[in-house]
Amino acid sequence: MGKRIKVRIQQLEEAKDLILPKYMSEQAAGMDLYANVVNDEIIEKGKIKLISTGIKIALPDGYEAQIRPRSGLALKHGISLVNTPGTIDADYRGEIKVIMINFGDEDFIIKRGERIAQMVINKIEQIEWEVTTELEETGRGSGGFGHTGV
pTM higher than 0.85 for the full model? Predict the structure, then answer.
């Protein structure tokens, strides 16, 4: 694994009993996020719901956090995230919340402390545009949207 960076995290008062985001295996890329719900939350089939995690983070400059669905919830229950991956910028200091959607055939119940999403921390670079009148040619050119076959 690469080097570890320190990231400051704050648990909201009502979430102090919850587990902090954590890696579930030695080489996992994502940390599981836990639901900070007081009572069971129901996501009706076909509906969207915003779920609290009870945490805030302070990423170092040059990093972002991506919030992604959990594959087990997607496969077994049809649960995903609406804006996947969601991006947490280094200068955001609000609570991390997860926009969940139920694509399944039945309502889905979220319980307090349940693993609802995963968070991946990435190093990022910002760019500076260099305006030009043409771009260099490549073998692919402008081919896209299935140009290599289905």
Answer: yes
